[in-house]
Write a structure and sequence with these properties.
317 residues; alpha/beta; Rossmann fold; seven-stranded parallel β-sheet; binds uridine-5'-diphosphate
Length: 317
Amino acid sequence: MFLSKRVMVTGGAGFIGSHLCEALLAQGAEVLCADNYFCSTKSNVEHLRDNPRFELLRHDVTFPLYVEVDEIYNLACPASPIHYQRDPVQTLKTSVHGAINMLGLAKRVRATILQASTSEVYGNPERHPQKEEYWGNVNPIGPRACYDEGKRAAECLFFDYHRQHRLRVKIARLFNTYGPRMHPNDGRVVSNFIVQALQGKDITIYGDGTQTRSFCYVSDMIRALMSLMNDTPDTFTGPLNLGNPEEFTILALATLIIDMTNSRSRIIFHPLPVDDPCRRRPDISLARENLRWTPEVPLREGLTSTIAYFEELFRRQ
Ligand code: UDP
């Protein structure tokens, strides 16, 4: 008898998590979606609930969990600065205690575990583009530290479990990702600009807009995460940069979104938040070599479906 793989996604009701649950179900897996809904919503996975292979569990990863699974994708953690700075102590606990609990579970059931780490481990990078071997430039006591240092500590825990307990681990460093189901109020630049443009509100650029980011469409990210998890012969642990290497200034992004939405919004400038990185672009050579992965969705195309998602969301409200 064919038994499907049992996969747990922590943070499964979040933006990226919900797309991952969907893709795993499409591949025939049994999916356990664990989430505490701190900054996610059940509506993101509502359409999956009738699937008999899908199970939704309200759980906070800072507490231990005992379930039988073959694979764990550990995505649980608020990722947007306004969310992770709302309760910084809890953010740090989510990364550190969450990693300890999920690694403990993986060790007990001998599951493979993938950590969603972040480009924030590079802090405000002094090297450009960022390669995995770069150790980063992080302010350990600044307002972003709860997230950056939490994710760095989680990477350390993953590697120690790997070395000490021979656990099969995978570490992905996700760069800015966007797409449908981003939270309209999570403060990320893509969602903020689209929401502002659609509502005819001022587009808020922080700083002078010359800072850069690279935006990866969510379907490209999901392909990469699943291929890292299923990499054969399973020799590759990472850390591995995942993102789209095409780099845009924030001002160029604002102009593009105004153009694509035919918006009359004006651009206004606000002060740059503390420790906001000036430049960010992944070097994805390692992912190209090891996973034979490369992002396929250009920014304009990804923005078209993201804008359509927000238009539909506002129509329904
Ligand atoms: N940003 C902006 N206006 C906004 C939201 C964000 O100019 O309304 C800027 C922010 O200061 C940063 C960039 O856009 O330089 C990306 O911000 P985001 O929070 O999306 O991601 P992160 O800073 O974590 O890369």
